[in-house]
Design brief:
Strands 1-6-2-3-4-5 form a 6-stranded antiparallel beta sheet. The protein has a 5-stranded mixed beta sheet with strand order 47-51-54-55-49, covered by helices on one side. It has a 4-stranded antiparallel beta sheet with strand order 7-8-12-11, covered by helices on one side. It is mainly beta and about 950 residues long.
């Protein structure tokens, strides 16, 4: 201002003749200055006459942001021309001067951060898309301001970073714009100095023909802190209404919008110095002392408030100390911790007006406060619990608050967390297919790591190929492997120092799997209506996949899937509904639903089985027998649900009975009966289903007449004695059992007592007849429709005739090598010796899946064959029955199948298949 007055006074002095050269120079300078003012006035009025359309400028920028025409200033000039502003220059500095001279808006100075972004909280709220941003170096080598770059502003992204259209260093305006030089630094490429400032030229009334609203103007002269007070001084006015005294807002502890408390004042104090410079009147100053709640070092922010409700002007901030008797001290400062550790941070405090406390942490991922400890308000002591998560440093600030939750005092402490060596795998279980490459991604932490080494447990499964760097800034690396064969291995990563000493190591699993496959146990299935068949199948291949089962005709069959465990075993359960042909399809698909492999099962459903009624028919309605005489009772039975046959009597002490033969294919049965006393008894036959339920019971009557008392007064003649020794009529009816009375009595001793025939398949009496026990305890599947597989309780002679030819018997008599036979009912011939059977044990214990052997020694007269029978099936699986006749030895090998208890009976038979001698053993199968 003073220079201008001095120049005007010099120009008005008279011109002297002896100073013509100086006069000419002064005249020339005067003409240049006049031309400059006229030119500026012309340019200013030319631009001011226009109206700016920000949308038109942005549309042009969207189309031409990378078309290769011109540099930054020329590109922005073309955008402004499209929006109706005639300013144009290829230099950013000149374009900025033209806009400031146009009167279309006003310029704001903003600071951008060290990362090269301009953030929303650093820009006035009135700035809008379509405004122009100049990157500015205030101190080039020639000491002149220099605009080094210019872009067209396009709002902010979700992170609050400025988006912009830029021509060189092209940016499409859709993403955050970051200004850096080629070397990645924020430096002026004219003078090389650091850049921290940007200037935003805001067009007042964007997209509008309304009159221009000017922001208010103001200056902070001073800000001081007192005892609970802040004193501010300065001036502010609004050129749109010069006579009006405007408001100034004062914020203590943070900028507007941050939650810091604000205090309004009026700039109406007498300031003639402001009026002399700006010609706005004398009453635009302010000097006020404000009572505030906060204490300690605080930043004081001031804003000049626009009188027409337009954008306000940020005047700046000053840092002051607000004195108080409030105190707060940490007992551990800084607080040092290790990752994963918890520690109490203690503190003391005092002062009036403290009502409560809160806290904040700058980086809670490193450490955070997890709970408040005990606070003793009377003593002014307290503590907080800090949990450390990872290495690094963060800051904890505790604030003392009044009743209105306003901050009275704040104190910050550094928390330093040290971290041990650590390797973090992106996945702990890694899966790859055979022949494919796979990246095991990991990151690591820890000091003094000079190199990374590795080890892999099985090169046949996964082969190491190379290292890769994924993201150095994030510390991510990868070890690339290639699957060779199916299985699992472990990759170990080692952190080493410069001497290759391992500082830390960790391992991760790699599973190599084959491609998906389905292996069916059968491709074709036949079943009757209402019957159910299970088809097991195995599906192979690791990884994520789905298994699905469908059928092409649900009117014919019902299907369900039963998934297996880790061995990939599954079952398809198929039930017939109506006769016909159907197809069941099993599919394996990936996580996207794409079918990888599928297999079909062809199903044929036949008519349902015809049921027959349950019935029992005896060959006679009653039987007359002699005491202690063996006689056969024959009956037939019908019914599809029959699983087990059982015998019972109404007088157990009067009868000894047991099974001779059961032919399931012909549905016939033979029972032997030996009465012990005269009288009448009933023998009951019971038919049971799979669950042991009684289907039908019928009886036949056995009549034993009293024996005549022999007359001892006369000597009986020979013919009478011979008549007495003849077999009874009942005995004559048994042509296939020619045993005499003595043999019958021996046979009777070998048979089991009648109470053993009760329906107790799992608890047989030790004296129970072998065939009877075998018949009563057969599992349900042994009595299903199996015409070609006779029951284990079937007569030994019938079993031998069905399973072994005469030629096999002759060969057995000649050989000493062991032979294999049926695991349930096995015959073999033996040489004649003294009669006995010895087993190496009376009881055998095996686990499921384990094997055992029963070792047998035998000798006796009239031995024709050996036979072995089981009291029930399904508990064990008999692998072989071997005999060594020349040594009088035999063995039975078996394997445990399911938990349970059975009895095995070894018998010596004569040439008529009568039992000469038996020996029992118990087998317990446990889990």
């Amino acid at each position: 201002m003073d220079n201008r007055k001095e120049n005007l006074s010099v120009a008005s002095q008279p011109i002297k003749a002896d100073t013509s050269s100086k006069v000419l120079v002064n005249i020339f300078l005067t003409i240049l200055m006049a031309a400059y003012f006229v030119l500026n006035f012309f340019i200013s009025n030319t631009y001011a006459a226009g109206n700016y359309s920000a949308s038109a400028a942005l549309n042009y920028a969207q189309i031409h942001w990378n078309d290769g025409k011109g540099l930054c200033a020329e590109f922005v000039s073309r955008c402004l021309n499209a929006g109706g502003v005639s300013a144009f220059s290829a230099r950013a500095t000149v374009l900025r001067s033209q806009l400031n001279s146009s009167g279309l808006g006003q310029e704001y100075t903003c600071s951008f951060s060290n990362d090269g972004y301009l953030y929303q909280n650093n820009v006035p709220s009135s700035v809008a898309p379509g405004d122009v941003v100049f990157y500015y170096c205030p101190r080039c080598d020639d000491n002149r301001p220099y605009s080094i770059h210019v872009v067209l502003f396009n709002g902010f992204d979700s992170s609050g970073r400025m988006k912009a259209y830029s021509h060189n260093g092209a940016n499409s305006g859709r993403y955050a714009y970051r200004y850096v030089t080629k070397k990645g630094t924020l430096r002026c490429y004219d003078c090389g100095r650091q850049i921290t400032t940007a200037h935003v030229y805001h067009f007042n009334g964007n997209n509008s023909n309304s009159s221009i609203n000017h922001r208010p103007t103001g200056v902070i002269d001073s800000v001081t802190g007192g005892n609970g007070t802040v004193t501010v001084g300065g001036w502010a006015f609004d050129t749109d209404d010069k006579a009006k005294s405007i408001q100034v807002h004062v914020y203590v502890g943070g900028p507007a919008g941050s939650g810091a408390p604000g205090y309004p004042i009026i700039a109406d104090a007498y300031r003639p110095d402001v009026n002399r410079v700006y010609n706005v009147g004398n009453n635009h100053g302010f000097s006020r002392t404000i009572n505030v709640d906060r204490r300690g070092s605080q930043k004081i922010y001031l804003y000049a408030i626009d009188g027409q409700n337009g954008p306000n002007t940020y005047l700046g901030y000053k840092t002051v100390n607000i004195s108080s008797h409030l105190e707060f001290n940490y007992l551990d400062s800084p607080l040092k911790m290790k990752a994963g550790e918890k520690k109490d941070l203690r503190f003391t405090f005092k002062g009036d007006g403290i009502y409560t406390m809160n806290y904040s942490v700058t980086d809670s991922s490193i450490a955070n406060m997890t709970s408040w400890g005990t606070i003793d308000w009377s003593k002014g002591t307290g503590a907080v619990t800090i949990s450390a998560y990872k290495g690094g440093s963060t800051k904890l600030t505790i604030n003392l608050l009044n009743k209105n939750k306003q901050t009275l005092y704040s104190k910050t402490v550094d928390i330093v967390v040290s971290e041990d060596y650590k390797i973090n795998f992106e996945r702990h279980i890694n899966k790859t297919r055979i022949g494919e490459e796979y990246k095991v991604v990991f990151s690591f932490s820890g000091s003094n790591v000079a190199m990374i080494d590795h080890d892999i447990s099985n090169l046949k499964i996964a082969e190491p190929i190379r290292w890769e760097t994924i993201d150095p800034s994030a510390g991510k690396y990868a070890f690339v492997v290639k699957g060779k064969s199916e299985g699992a291995t472990f990759l170990t990563i080692k952190l080493c120092d410069s001497n290759r000493k391992t500082l830390f190591s960790d391992s991760v699993s790699i599973i190599t799997y084959e491609t998906l496959a389905i292996n069916l146990s059968k491709d074709n299935v036949e079943l009757a209506v209402n019957d159910t068949v299970e088809v097991p199948f195995v599906h192979s291949g690791y990884g994520t996949y789905n298994i699905d089962v469908t059928d092409n005709n649900s009117n014919l069959i019902d299907i369900s899937l039963q998934n297996g465990g880790a061995n990939k075993d599954s079952k398809v359960k198929i039930t017939g509904k109506n006769p016909g042909n159907a197809t069941v399809t099993i599919k394996l698909s990936n996580s996207s639903g794409k079918t990888i492999v599928e297999k079909n099962i062809n199903v044929t459903v036949k008519e349902a089985h015809k049921t027959t009624p349950v019935d029992i028919k005896f060959s006679q309605t009653s039987y007359t027998m002699e005491e202690n005489t063996r006689q056969k009772i024959v009956f037939t039975f019908t019914g599809d649900e029959i699983c087990t046959l059982s015998l019972d009597s109404d007088n157990e002490s009067a009868l000894n009975y047991g099974w001779d033969n059961v032919d399931w294919s012909k549905r016939t049965a033979e029972v032997f009966v030996i009465p012990h006393s005269a009288g009448k008894s009933k023998l009951f036959v019971k038919l049971l289903d799979k669950s042991g339920n009684l289907l039908l019971q019928k009886s036949t009557e056995i009549i034993v007449p009293e024996k005549e008392t022999p007359d001892t007064s006369e000597e009986p003649d020979k013919d009478e004695n011979e008549d007495d020794e003849q077999p009874s009529e009942a005995h004559e009816d048994k042509p296939d059992t020619p045993d005499d009375n003595q043999d019958d009595e021996k046979q009777n001793e070998d048979e089991q007592p009648s109470e053993a025939y009760e329906d107790k398949p799992d608890t047989p009496d030790d004296n129970q007849d072998d065939e009877k026990q075998n018949e009563d305890e057969q599992p349900s599947e042994a009595y299903e429709d199996k015409p070609d597989t006779p029951d284990d309780n079937q007569d030994d002679e019938k079993q031998n005739e069905d399973e072994q030819s005469q030629e096999d018997q002759n060969q057995d008599n000649q050989q000493e090598e062991p032979e294999e036979d049926s695991p349930v009912d096995i015959d073999d011939e033996a040489e004649e010796t003294d009669t006995y059977i010895n087993l190496d044990q009376d009881e055998y214990n095996v686990k499921i899946g384990e094997s055992g052997t029963i070792r047998i020694k035998f000798d006796g007269n009239n031995i024709s064959s050996l036979k072995g029978t089981l009291s029930r099936t399904g508990v064990i699986s008999v692998k072989s029955f071997r005999t060594y006749r020349s040594r009088g030895e035999a063995s039975i090998s078996f394997t445990g199948v399911q938990p349970g208890k059975i009895r095995i009976t070894v018998k010596l038979l004569d040439g008529s298949k009568n039992i000469i001698c038996t020996k029992d053993a118990t087998i317990n199968v446990i889990k």
